[in-house]
Write a structure and sequence with these properties.
Blueprint (H helix, E strand, L loop, with lengths): L2 H15 L23 E2 L13 H6 L10 H12 L11 E14 L2 E8 L17 E10 L6 E9 L3 E3 L2 E3 L1 E10 L6
Parallel strand pairs: 1-2, 4-8
Antiparallel strand pairs: 2-3, 2-5, 3-4, 5-8, 6-7
């Protein structure tokens, strides 16, 4: 396997291994400033990937024997494939809860109004962005205080299948967030 193919496959394997740990129970967090409880469908990152879609498919379509680390056309083809990764249309408009790592986008006075939610530590910051269907653009009507890059949180709200380009990566989903809470893994 040539170096660029090996790097792309290694990035994919690394991202798969670093996904958030599975969480067994769905929760119903309270909305900030409200006594009402809203029911959220708890998602895991693999739920955001359409059945049958494989990021490795693009690699198999290329001629791996002809690709090397300096092949900018191959790098661009892979990035384009990941940036256009398909979403699960049935999730559009669903009220969901998803764990992930915070990648700040819009911050003012220690408050975030926009951030990306990603499945593994370092995504978009210390490593190339994952496929678009593994990046959620989070919009907060009321800015969230106290979040830093790579904090692990639960984000709850209404999910939309909407592609958005940012300086940190292309997201395939947008979440209009109701609540952002520290991540606490399920314990029996």
């Amino acid at each position: 396997m040539r170096p660029i193919v090996r790097h792309a496959v290694s990035s994919l394997v690394l991202s798969s291994l670093l996904l958030m740990p599975p969480v067994a129970a769905a929760g119903t967090p309270k909305l900030p400033g409200s006594s009402a409880v809203k029911s959220y469908r708890q998602l895991q990152w693999e739920d955001l990937i359409p059945k049958g879609w494989s990021p490795q498919k693009r690699l198999r379509e290329m001629n791996p024997g002809m690709i090397n680390d300096s092949d900018s056309a191959a790098k661009k083809a892979m990035r384009d494939a990941w940036d256009s990764a398909p979403t699960v249309k049935a999730l559009n408009g669903q009220t969901v809860r998803l764990p992930g790592y915070v990648v700040p986008l819009e911050e003012a006075n220690g408050e975030l109004s926009e951030f990306l939610l990603v499945p593994y530590f370092g995504a978009c910051i210390h490593s190339p962005p994952p496929p678009a269907n593994q990046i959620v653009h989070v919009l907060a009507a009321k800015p969230v205080k106290g979040l830093r890059a790579m904090d692990v949180v639960w984000a709850s709200g209404t999910l939309h299948t909407q592609r958005q380009d940012s300086y940190m990566g292309v997201s395939g989903y947008r979440l209009s967030v109701d609540a952002v809470e520290p991540y606490v893994p399920f314990r029996q």
